[in-house]
Description:
Number of strands: 4
Number of domains: 2
Number of helices: 4
Structural class: alpha+beta
Order of helices and strands: HHHEEEEH
Radius of gyration: 18 Å
Distance between the termini: 41 Å
Shape: elongated
Amino acid sequence: MKITRIEFFMTLRSPEEARDPGFGNLALNFEISKKYGDTIMSMICEICGKKPMIGCNVSHAHNVTKRRFNPNLQRVRSLNNGRVQKIMVCTNCIKSGRIVKAP
């Protein structure tokens, strides 16, 4: 079973566990999330699942370098199962009415 990054943060008990070389620089992320009281969220729309896409910057001289196209995510207060919740939603979902904003 593969553990996602968010589940990994929830299972950690200390930054020393994150210093394992197999997990890269998650120790810093763990300390930041512990300091601010929340987990580090990835850039994924919680309604449609839109994610960042990989593309290329192409200069006039046709030098090609990798770049990342992030979705336009907005933090929105919405009604979810009768209660108000803040969720990250892309602007396409907001415009198409897939989300009900809280008053």
